[in-house]
Design a protein that fits this description.
The complex is a heterodimer of chains A (273) and B (300). Helices cover 71% and strands 2% of the residues of chain A. Chain A is mainly α and 273 residues long. Chain A has one domain. In chain A, a hairpin with a 4-residue loop joins strand 1 and strand 2. Chain B is an alpha/beta fold and 300 residues long. In chain B, the strands form three sheets. A six-stranded mixed β-sheet of chain B has the order 5-6-7-3-8-9, with helices on both faces. In chain B, strand 8 and strand 9 form a beta hairpin. In chain B, helix 3 packs across helix 4. Chain B is elongated, with a radius of gyration of 24 Å. Classes of the chains: A mainly alpha (273), B alpha/beta (300). Chains A and B meet through helix 1 and helix 4 of A and helix 2 and helix 3 of B.
Chain lengths: 273, 300
């Protein structure tokens, strides 16, 4: 560990300054949150979007039953985990990817790069911030499910927690990769949101898809379907293992692919420059 | 030790040379300007010195360390300040919030209120950045460059987009920083900015340095031709003038010479003897802009 001092000799290897760097992560996280909530309309829209969808769809079709091989269950018991997945993906993929394109194209990443803040601190704070926003949505959705639709929370808390964690990490990686594929700010919102909404629609966020359907056979190639299924499994208290290792494995492969694309295509400077 | 030392710097992208065989030094406490047309390599050079971009060849030392050496980059970045060519500030923060955040990145930053005062944004300190005018945002950009109390400040076209009064304020700030010991390296398109600020200047063209020196001497400016002008006095013909006249345009006599002292002595001696005045007598050296245009001719 090296501490920057006033001496003339430059210290070497000074990318981790121990506790002071961890404090810097927390400080940077607070500024990330401040930046998010300083736009209250946008922030509330982001946070309550999934909740509004759950309330609308849950009210309209939630009491209908679906047969999922475990006996008939009410649709709303499927919608709560599926919208938790939606919340994770919207924060860690959709919002993150658009925000990273904007930061890059506005020159904010370049400026940060020129400050004496290590990359890992900047990235840790950004990731923690989008994960925190996902967690806020998750808590609201579980509360609405519990008190609005009498849907009990996850039956297996460790399996649910692991799935949420894997989902956040994987979709953060995919969000970062997505940001490197979008060339400018003008196209960031439309491109990322279009891909996001097509995937969540086809993967069965808004309606239950039978595993034997053609749509399900197509959707299993993408990570969204697996996050929904893994969360749904953690909500079940009988007949199915809450530990959806296959789904988590497929998501992990997508996550690794996201990391590779993000690292290979990453740039700090605007693409227009 | 020089604040910046560059020897045979090269940067290329495939066959295209962005910078080629560039050599110069910037002394501590100096204001050094890089001039050149768009695409000449100014920003590339500065970004290499900042450690933002990697070079293809040559030796570079910024504050005594290689800016590409990752093991000393954090130390280096705590001692340099950078003002980017384009605005790069989050619009939702207030002026004070963004300066306070960035101050926390540095080991010994300037007090935030001092920076707000230096950039003249006291009355806007708690306003959202998106509500500031373009000139005020540019000043905030400068504030972010100096918040870390840098030994070396890079300014990439710092006054582009500012009104005349804003430019003068920025010049005053740069002079103030320089007088307090900060080394300043700037790029600019404005010749008056170079003349007002720079101790030394280098001109980049087609990726290479084509001239360097002080603003008063670059390109042979101090030893070159001067132009002596005056209005032709009443009752005097051009043939009466005792030195060679190049042109008479609408009654304005122009004499170009490299021997200004002798020509002026002859001319004024003759005028005193004849008891005539030489209306509007002026002596002008070739302008920095003329030198610059000569050096970069054919750049576009």
């Amino acid at each position: 560990m090296t501490v920057v001092s006033g001496s003339d000799a430059p210290p070497r290897g000074g990318w981790f300054h121990g506790l002071s760097d961890l404090r810097l992560v927390l400080r940077q996280f607070r500024y990330e949150q401040l930046s998010f909530w300083l736009n209250p309309f946008g922030a509330m829209f982001t946070v309550v979007f999934s909740t509004v969808f759950l309330i609308l769809i849950g009210s309209l079709a939630g009491q209908q039953t679906i047969g999922n091989g475990l006996g008939d269950i009410k649709q709303v018991q499927y919608y709560v985990p599926s919208f938790v997945a939606f919340g994770i993906m919207s924060s860690c993929f959709n919002i993150l990817a658009i925000s990273m394109v904007n930061r890059r194209e506005m020159g904010l990443l370049k400026r940060l790069r020129l400050c004496p803040v290590p990359t890992w601190i900047v990235m840790a704070a950004i990731f923690l911030s989008s994960m925190f926003i996902a967690l806020v949505q998750l808590v609201i959705l579980l509360a609405v499910g519990r008190f609005g639709f009498s849907v009990h929370g996850p039956a297996n808390i460790p399996a649910f927690a692991l799935t949420v964690l894997v989902g956040m990490v994987v979709f953060t990686a995919l969000g970062m990769a997505m940001s490197t594929l979008v060339p400018n700010m003008d196209s960031a919102g439309p491109v990322v949101s279009l891909i996001f909404f097509i995937l969540v629609f086809l993967s069965g966020t808004y309606f239950y898809i039978s595993p034997s359907s053609g749509l399900a056979k197509f959707a299993v190639y993408f990570p969204v379907r697996h996050l929904i299924l893994a969360l749904f499994a953690s909500f079940q208290n009988e007949g199915v293992s809450p530990w959806a290792w296959h789904d988590l494995g497929v998501m992990a492969i997508w996550g690794v692919a996201g990391v590779i694309v993000a690292l290979r295509r990453w740039r700090w400077a605007p693409r227009r420059g | 030790m020089a604040a910046v030392s560059v020897r045979n710097l090269a940067k290329s992208y495939g066959d295209k040379h962005a910078v080629r065989d560039v050599t110069f030094e910037v002394e501590k406490g100096e204001i050094f300007a890089l001039l050149g047309p768009n695409g000449a390599g100014k920003t590339t050079t500065i970004e290499i010195l900042e450690g933002f971009r990697e070079r293809s060849g040559g030796d570079v030392k910024t504050l005594g360390v290689d800016p590409a050496d990752r093991s000393t980059q954090r130390w280096l970045r705590s001692r340099i300040g950078v003002v980017l060519q384009e605005l790069a500030v989050e619009p939702s923060y207030s002026v004070r919030q963004v300066l306070t955040r960035n101050a926390g990145y540095y080991p010994s930053p300037r007090p935030v209120d001092e920076v707000i005062s230096l950039i003249g944004l006291e009355e806007k300190a708690d306003d959202r950045i998106k509500k500031l005018s373009g000139g005020q945002q540019r000043r905030l950009d400068v504030g972010l460059g100096i918040i870390g109390n840098p030994e070396l400040l890079f300014l990439d076209e710092p006054t582009t987009g500012l009104d005349p009064s804003g430019r003068r304020d920025s010049w005053d700030l740069i002079r103030h920083l320089s007088s307090a010991g900060t080394t300043v390296m700037l790029t600019t398109h404005y010749m008056d900015e170079v003349e007002a600020l720079a101790d030394r200047v280098a001109v980049l063209n087609h990726a290479e340095i084509v001239a360097s020196g002080t603003p008063a001497s670059i390109g042979g400016r101090d030893s070159g031709t001067v132009t002596i002008r005056f209005a032709l006095p009443d009752g005097v013909s051009v043939a009466d003038i005792p030195v060679h006249v190049q042109t008479v345009d609408d009654g304005l006599v122009s004499i170009r010479t490299e021997d200004e002292l002798r020509v002026l002595h002859t001319l004024t001696g003759w005028a005193l003897e004849r008891d005539v005045i030489l209306p509007g007598l002026s002596v002008s050296r070739i302008s920095l802009e003329d030198i610059y245009l000569n050096l970069t001719r054919g750049a576009r």
